[in-house]
Write a structure and sequence with these properties.
Helix content is 29%, strand content 25%. The chain is α+β, with helices and mostly antiparallel strands. The protein has a nine-stranded antiparallel β-sheet with strand order 13-14-15-16-25-22-21-18-19, with helices on one face. A seven-stranded antiparallel β-sheet has the order 26-27-28-31-32-37-34, with no helix packed on it. Strand 7 and strand 8 form a beta hairpin. Helix 7 runs parallel beside helix 9. The radius of gyration is 28 Å and the shape is globular. The N terminus is likely disordered.
Length: 802
């Protein structure tokens, strides 16, 4: 039986099983440490399993090409101050640029080390390559990364980026790097990040989330490589924060700040939903530590590991669209050319596959099924053989795809609210949607270190619509070309903003208002709202989104501007390959629009072939006009990300945009909009909804936004203050839903503002019987409900009868 056939027959556990060897506890040292080095190398290289697998031939060749690129351009002169002329180390210890270049030096040496260490690579075992890597490491140890150098610029390079690459290079070239050089480099790692529990050499700022995990992995590896078992234990125990009684344990739920929340939310940098990047890094790092230490004296045995395991389905899976992680939880990573949504998705899938074999049931089977479903539905991109993935990850993915015993989990169909990160995600059979909300708790966007330079309005209601006809909408050149003032779903004015390029550090501007969030009904429908006040308080308005079976209904009211600026709401700004704008129908008329043509006024509907439809709704408070244009835009990834190690190409990228805009005019006072998006709908369905909309807008004011869906007996609303509409009365700000079915009325209430201990709700009709109720929810009188709130925006439900 060939190696390839054997691997596929064994299935998904083949590689991970070797990584998680349960043959028995490894001795403490030193032979046990050698085994752990071998396990870590297995994660990095995939061992010899990759040879002879046709699907990986291109990936192996690519590794060789990358190694050759950096090797051939390397300065090999006896006297030199850096290894590559394009990234000089001049000013190391004083210059932020030199610090970034130091990180790039280690990245390139790592690529060369992979070329040397991976079996089947064109440069595998090349002694000249190994010698040049070693002399390169010696130069960096002597002149740039040692305890005599002062850490300048971005701390991350000194404490996480360079240490991670250092220990991995030393793992790949374990036998080739002289002991004194290995000791020197590990001493530098220890100097700049002595304890993974803390930032730097002080003990004043505790590490959290992904940063803690990254440091723990580097600490474990430096202990393994430097024959210091106590450091392996230090790295492992930092995951659980045993030093501070679990205060910052990655295996503990949090109620504020960084980490995993009980409702599935994940926050990093205190104020941003970040499961798609930092969360994946944390999950992947923990998976690698567990795989490396499993069955040894230092195995991870924290009984609260279920917090992390449950997060796979509760935190990550809801925001995966066919293998892609939705940009709503990826923060400033949306600006990274080499990290589009599917690459983040691949990182999640690989981490899940690495975790699965070491898990007990039912986690193991569910994880493998989830991963297989994501891989199969990511039809336009393939993890197996992808240049951003390691061979080990490709092998794991190839195995689970080939394992007939694993049944792929189908795409989800549900609506879920994550109150602790101000996000709702909505999955339908043919489309999905989520909205970026911001508040005085959750930031508008993250910028800094010259990343996400134009991200100003990403948290001001940006609306992401995913369809299976267009899976690459947000990964195929969208971010470098989209008009940053015209993100779908946002209401902005035309005051000019300043690029974040060149800014040091990072920042997350929070919104000023408290109301942001909502609720779901039966896991099928949802509603969120946001009390919007822009960055300089020159524009305000109330915005609501209602998630239905076949539609997304969007309302805006009380839109008021000052300062002489024009205000617009972008209903849609869909990106297409230049010259490939699909057929457009406006108000049932076919349109041929080219970039630069005058905008067309829309009175009722728009249909975009291959995407879906949009219908303008009759509603109170709507003023202004709606117009359609096709706009060609050119930009570069460097424009939005010029970061030291994540900066994009300066090459021009061009896309055509179908831009649907509601113009409110200059300094509007109390303007509004109302429209319905019909993702994946046909022209016929759009035309029918235009003439006979299922939805009624029952209220659209600065105080109340409410819709009704008669065929489902459903009413949903955002009350921004105490008030009444359509027979519903509330005592304070809240989100409300009422669903009538079979002679009962189920009422759901949440307080996205988190400003009240309780709220009183009166509903129309005669309801005198309490059928069921969540704790803290009572029927205090005929058709009157008292709801005790939890202060976190989570919803309460109760069902009434007559």
């Amino acid at each position: 039986m060939s190696r390839r056939t054997l691997f596929r027959t064994v299935g998904a556990a083949a590689l991970a099983g070797a990584l998680l060897s349960q043959a028995g506890p490894a001795p403490a040292a030193p032979a046990g440490l050698t085994e752990l080095v071998d396990r870590r190398r297995l994660v990095l290289t995939g061992s010899r399993s990759a040879e002879g697998v046709p699907e990986l031939a291109g990936q192996l060749a690519g590794m060789g090409q990358t190694a050759e690129k950096w090797w051939s351009s390397m300065d090999k002169a006896p006297v030199r101050t850096s290894l590559w002329n394009d990234i000089p180390l001049t000013g190391i210890g004083q210059s932020a640029t030199a610090t970034g270049n130091l990180g790039l030096h280690f990245n390139r040496l790592y690529d060369m080390a992979l070329g040397y260490a991976v079996p089947g690579s064109p440069y595998a075992g090349n002694s000249e390559l190994a010698a040049d890597i070693v002399t390169g490491l010696q130069l960096l140890s002597d002149t740039a990364y040692n305890s005599t150098i002062r850490a300048a610029g971005n701390w991350w390079f000194w404490e996480i980026g360079v240490p991670r690459k250092t220990v991995d290079i030393l793992t790949l070239l374990h036998a080739e790097v002289p002991e004194n050089l290995r000791t020197s480099l590990l001493a530098a790692v220890r100097w700049f990040a002595p304890d993974p529990n803390w930032r730097g050499r002080a003990t004043t700022l505790a590490e959290t989330g992904a940063n803690r995990v990254d440091k723990s992995l580097a600490c474990c590896m430096r202990g393994i490589l430097d024959n210091k078992p106590e450091e392996i234990a230090l790295g492992r125990d930092a995951l659980s924060d045993t030093m501070r009684g679990g205060k910052n344990s990655v295996f503990t739920y949090v109620s504020k700040g960084d980490g995993f929340y009980t409702d599935g939310s994940f926050v990093q940098h205190s104020y941003l939903p970040y499961a798609g990047t930092y969360g994946v890094v944390a999950l992947a790092g923990i998976a690698e530590i567990i795989a490396m230490l499993g069955g040894s004296t230092w195995a991870v045995n924290d009984p609260k590991q279920t917090v992390l395991l449950d997060a796979v389905e509760n935190t990550f899976a809801p925001f995966v669209w066919d293998g892609r992680i939705m940009d709503t939880i990826r923060g400033r990573a949306v600006s990274r050319q080499r990290e589009p949504d599917y690459v983040s998705g691949f990182g999640l899938i690989s981490a899940v596959l690495l975790l699965a074999p070491g898990c007990e049931e039912p986690y193991r089977s569910r994880f493998l099924s989830l991963a297989k479903g994501w891989l199969e539905r990511c039809a336009d991109q393939k993890l197996v053989g992808h240049p951003t993935q390691s061979l080990a990850k490709s092998l794991l993915s190839l195995a689970v795809l080939s394992d007939a015993a694993v049944t792929a989990t189908p795409a989800p169909v549900y609506s879920r609210m994550f109150a602790d990160q101000d996000r709702l995600v909505h999955h339908r059979p043919q489309w999905g949607c989520t909205v970026n909300l911001s508040s005085n708790r959750i930031g508008r966007y993250e910028w800094g270190n010259s990343e996400n330079n134009l991200g100003w309005y990403q948290g001001d209601g940006m609306t992401f619509i995913y369809t299976r006809q267009d899976p690459a909408q947000f990964s195929a050149g969208f971010w470098p070309t989209v008009d940053p003032y015209a993100l779908p779903g946002t209401t902005v004015n035309d005051q000019q903003r300043t690029s974040g390029a060149g800014s040091a550090g990072t920042g997350i501007p929070r919104a000023y208002q408290a109301f942001a969030g909502g609720l779901t009904v039966n896991g099928r429908w949802g509603v969120v709202g946001m009390d919007h006040l822009n960055h300089n308080k020159s524009l305000s308005g109330r915005k609501s989104w209602f998630f239905l079976d076949d539609a997304l209904v969007c309302l805006g009211a009380g839109i008021t501007g000052t300062g002489g600026a024009s205000v617009r709401t972008t209903l849609e700004n869909r990106s297409f390959e230049a010259g490939n704008v699909p057929v457009l129908r406006t108000d049932a008329r076919n349109r041929t629009l080219l970039p630069g043509d005058p905008a067309v006024r829309i009175t009722r509907s728009l249909h975009i072939e291959g995407h879906g439809g949009y219908v303008l709704l009759d509603a109170p408070g709507v003023t202004g006009t709606a117009e359609l244009a096709v706009i060609r835009r050119t930009g570069s990834w460097y424009d939005i990300n010029s970061g030291a190690d994540t900066g994009g190409s300066k090459d021009a990228v061009t896309r055509d945009y179908v831009t649907f805009t509601h113009r409110h005019g200059k300094d509007p006072a109390g303007s509004g909009y109302a429209y319905m998006a019909l993702p994946a709908a046909s022209h016929e369905a759009t035309f029918y909804q235009s003439a006979h909309p299922d939805v009624k807008v029952l209220a659209n004011s600065a105080d109340i936004q409410m819709i009704g869906l008669d065929k489902e007996g459903l009413v949903m609303a955002n009350f921004y203050a105490a008030g009444s509409a359509e027979g519903y009365t509330v005592s304070g700000p809240c989100t409300l839903a009422a669903h009538r079915v079979n002679g009962t009325l189920t009422v759901s209430v949440a307080d996205p503002s988190r400003t009240q201990a309780s709220v009183r709700v009166t509903v129309p009709g005669s309801w005198s019987k309490l059928v069921s109720a969540d704790e803290g929810t009572i029927l205090s009188g005929p058709s009157t409900i008292e709801v005790q709130l939890d202060g976190h925006g989570h919803q309460k439900n109760l069902t009434l009868g007559t």
